[in-house]
């Protein structure tokens, strides 16, 4: 089976993890801060808080921005459910901004219209979560301008985008956002098995996120002086969680980060090769924005259904039957039963729904060989011609 995504683990990665197993600390040792340093030095952001998943990172990011009951979080319908769920964890309500059908990212024009209307109706969002789908950066300059106008905070969901650049700035620099979140799940660009991180340039936000990561506990010894206390002393000053990353995960992350540039370069080579091989077929290949460098987590094609006789499902199944585990990123979040039960319905976000009817994620990962890629194109070509 050729998967749609897969980790790339080297001997150096394995040695790094084994060394931690033989060391004194499996958790709460030196590797997590060292991994956070690797993230800040790559991105240029001042602070990084490593956690056990991007979902946790989104949650503590929302908490740090004080998202709560009565507030709104807006995101794109074309994302993994976690981008929206983070708002629900905080008791906030969730709404969506339809995509730009060229980039598949949240559409800034739609955002502008929706913000204007929300401003009149008094229901502006507190937090916007733009998602850099497939690694292609969102139009962050425009999004920041609009959000500044209405005092909306921004969390970039960069789960697909580490290693990418927007107008010369590394994704994760937080130049146009309050917080940026990364995922290190094995199918993503860099992995820690499970893992995530939240980056920011704001010291207060970083301190809050660090507190929420670990039970709301601090070792600062200031208040509660009615009894003496020693080294063992700690204080819980807010309600947090255990979202900590282990030393094993951090060691793997540090080792993987050393190959980040190489990983993304290989993805670009594969994407160029796909785009070349798919020329002339009735599929839309990914659009590359100017002034950006995609992390290329995914290579998504859109079937031009009016030019082929096969259905989306048939093409999908033909690839699957031929041991090519293509995938679909994503079912629009508002069409999930849990979200439908909140009142969302088919027809709410037409560009997202149209995308969903046509999209297929082709295999894309550093270990994908040219012959495997040729097989994908061959099966795809025949499935488009069949029927
Ligand atoms: C993978 C992903 C997440 C969640 O990441 P985890 O590390 O698995 O929690 C969130 N948002 C997007 C866009 C993702 O692709």
UniProtKB/TrEMBL annotation:
Annotated Gene Ontology MF terms? Answer: pyridoxal phosphate binding; transaminase activity
Q: Which InterPro entries match?
A: DegT/StrS_aminotransferase, PseC, PyrdxlP-dep_Trfase, PyrdxlP-dep_Trfase_major, PyrdxlP-dep_Trfase_small
Q: What is a biological process (GO) this protein takes part in?
A: polysaccharide biosynthetic process
Q: Which domain of life is it from?
A: Bacteria
Tell me which UniProt keywords the record has, alphabetically: Pyridoxal phosphate
Question: Does the record carry RNA-binding as a key word?
Answer: no
Name the CDD domains on file: AHBA_syn (cd00616)
Per the Swiss-Prot or TrEMBL record, the active site comprises 188 (proton acceptor)
Positions modified as N6-(pyridoxal phosphate)lysine?
A: 188
The similarity comment for this entry is: Belongs to the DegT/DnrJ/EryC1 family.
Q: What is this protein called?
A: Putative FlmB
Native source species: gamma proteobacterium HTCC2207
């Amino acid at each position: 089976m050729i998967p749609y995504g897969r980790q790339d683990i080297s001997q150096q990665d394995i040695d790094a993890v084994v060394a931690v197993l033989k060391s004194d600390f499996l958790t709460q040792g030196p590797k997590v801060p060292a991994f956070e340093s690797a993230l800040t030095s790559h991105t240029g952001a001042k602070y990084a808080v490593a956690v056990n998943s991007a979902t946790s990172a989104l949650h503590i990011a929302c908490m740090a921005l004080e998202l709560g009951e009565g507030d709104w979080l807006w995101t794109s319908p074309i994302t993994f459910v976690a981008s929206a769920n983070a708002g629900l964890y905080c008791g906030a309500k969730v709404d969506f901004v339809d995509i730009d059908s060229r980039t598949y990212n949240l559409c800034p024009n739609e955002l502008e219209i929706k913000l204007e209307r929300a401003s009149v109706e008094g229901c502006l969002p507190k937090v916007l979560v733009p998602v850099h789908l497939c690694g292609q950066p969102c139009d962050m300059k425009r999004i920041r301008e609009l959000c500044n106008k209405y005092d909306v905070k921004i969390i970039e969901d960069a789960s697909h985008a580490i290693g990418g650049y927007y107008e010369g700035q590394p994704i994760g620099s937080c130049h146009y956002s309050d917080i940026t979140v990364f995922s290190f799940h094995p199918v993503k660009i860099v992995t820690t098995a499970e893992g995530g991180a939240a980056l920011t340039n704001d010291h207060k936000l970083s301190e809050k996120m660090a507190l929420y990561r670990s039970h709301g506990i601090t070792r600062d010894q200031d208040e509660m002086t009615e009894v003496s206390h020693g080294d063992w002393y700690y204080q819980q000053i807010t309600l947090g969680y255990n979202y900590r990353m282990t030393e094993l995960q951090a060691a793997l992350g540090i080792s993987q980060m050393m190959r980040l540039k190489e990983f993304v370069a290989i993805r670009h080579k594969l994407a160029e090769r796909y785009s070349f091989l798919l020329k002339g077929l009735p599929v839309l290949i990914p659009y590359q924005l100017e002034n950006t460098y995609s992390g290329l987590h995914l290579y998504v094609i859109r079937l031009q259904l009016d030019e082929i006789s096969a259905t989306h499902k048939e093409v999908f199944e033909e690839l699957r039957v031929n041991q090519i585990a293509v995938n679909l990123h994503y079912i629009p979040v508002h069409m999930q039963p849990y979200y439908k039960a909140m009142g969302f319905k088919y027809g709410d976000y037409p560009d997202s729904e149209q995308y969903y009817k046509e999209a297929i994620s082709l295999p894309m990962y550093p270990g994908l060989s040219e012959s495997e890629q040729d097989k994908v194109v061959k099966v795809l070509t025949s499935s488009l011609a069949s029927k």
